[in-house]
# Entry
Amino acid sequence: MSKLLNLLQDGRFHSGQDLGQALGVSRSAVWKQLQLLEADLGLVVHKVRGRGYRLATPVSLLNPEPINAALALLGWDVSTYQILDSTNAQALRTVTQGVSRPLLVLAERQDAGRGRRGRPWVSPYAANLYYSLVLPVHGGIKRLDGLSLVAGMATVQCLRAHGVHSAMLKWPNDVLVQGQKIAGILLELVGDPTEQCHVVLGIGINANMRDTDAIDQQWTSIYLQTQQLVDRSALAISLSDALAQYLGRLDAVGFGALREEWEALHAWQGKAVNLVSGSRVIPGTVLGINDQGALRLHVDGKEETFSGGELSLRLRDDS
# Structure
């Protein structure tokens, strides 16, 4: 099926005869493979008499060869899959096998993609970027201060390089375009946080998705912003280059030296917000973040700081 999908990914019509010759199979065998594409991958194939077959919308398949070559220059390993439960779950499984240098896990589709607080992450085949980076961490958890925030900065840099110039951050780990979510970040830790451990840095970017009823919040994608199909392999390479740059800076100078740069990218800087923690709602005004990446809020006439994985930030109606 992968060879057939490579032939069809341009979204143009291809005759059954041409497809059969390219694959070395009969036209009836081509038709059976097309049915499998629709049933197994959720892709829609149009058939027009006299013109042939085409995908309802073109796709950009991951191309491991340029990705592997580019990431080898960074000293990273790469594993690319057709379908996974989630790239973060696969990355966590690889940690048990021993990972001594950064390892990137990519997939064409996730069947159980997830975001923060266990929320599902919609992951149709060949539509978006499903990206999890395993990072060995030596010297304790303090070296992780600000990691998810610099990952957001790298994601914004990548998106702007691909034409989404209004991409901004939302604390702690969302990327927005005019209030619509375009990317999210999920960190998971494995091992002893006081000594040697691994962190899995999961990033999902809406790349070529055009419509879905499965997302319960406002969202957008690179395609919807630019009206151009994005090369997902180039996107993975661009994100990796940006991440390597920011991870190097974080390791060299610490997050405190990057704090003002992050705040300049924060879409809700100075905004009136509600911070939700379980059933508790804390109204305040965003002052920024501290050197560890915790949120600074002006609450009831004084400054308070907040950090933790179960916090949610929402704009107030009067903001």
About this structure: The chain has three domains: 2-55, 64-263, 268-315. The longest strand covers residues 180-191. Residues 64-263 form a domain with the BirA Bifunctional Protein; domain 2 fold (CATH 3.30.930.10).
